[in-house]
């Protein structure tokens, strides 16, 4: 488990505006405002973070102040100084990089997204507890087995490593300034997104070959990533499969609504 220092939580609430398919399906101007379980997704995420003893302060990264103003509870918290707001940049990675540069005492920094509608204090607690003391950066994951056992109809993207599939959980922790190297790498990969050969060249032939042959397990993958990034990265496999179910498309919105209805 990492130190008992409390985290700054950065919530990425960028959006493609009304053109976003989730925003269109929900009839709202921004994806973050889509209502599930009777609340806008962004408010659900903030409430989960505020209820977690691991979180010291919350910063919302939004492209438009109107997103905050549309949720009275959030607007009031911002006015009282309980929540801070910063502008998003051209990409998620650049937004995280800007937060690291501009926020005083930014580390340790926990990053999540406004569409993490099933986030709970328990998920946050499991993630923080799973971060090892020697880590510079940590990534939350859930296994294919756990997700499909709990939600057989869930459509997720899985990366297969060592006989198991893993899906990201939109939870990242940057524990030290060295962890910023991971963001620098992330920014570079975003820049190369239209030139896949540059991404492959950055990763290297041997790791790609091991992955293609099914010989790269989770620990090996993170060792390779740590080497590439220049900072120690660790995976945190979460016991809650819901941690991997974010809202990227209208069908996700329906699934999250169904899951929340069972909790009532």
UniProtKB/TrEMBL annotation:
<protein>
    <recommendedName>
        <fullName>MobA-like NTP transferase domain-containing protein</fullName>
    </recommendedName>
</protein>
<keyword id="KW-0460">Magnesium</keyword>
<dbReference type="InterPro" id="IPR025877">
    <property type="entry name" value="MobA-like_NTP_Trfase"/>
</dbReference>
<dbReference type="InterPro" id="IPR029044">
    <property type="entry name" value="Nucleotide-diphossugar_trans"/>
</dbReference>
<feature type="domain" description="MobA-like NTP transferase">
    <location>
        <begin position="9"/>
        <end position="139"/>
    </location>
</feature>
<dbReference type="GO" id="GO:0016779">
    <property type="term" value="F:nucleotidyltransferase activity"/>
</dbReference>
<dbReference type="Pfam" id="PF12804">
    <property type="entry name" value="NTP_transf_3"/>
</dbReference>
<dbReference type="InterPro" id="IPR006311">
    <property type="entry name" value="TAT_signal"/>
</dbReference>
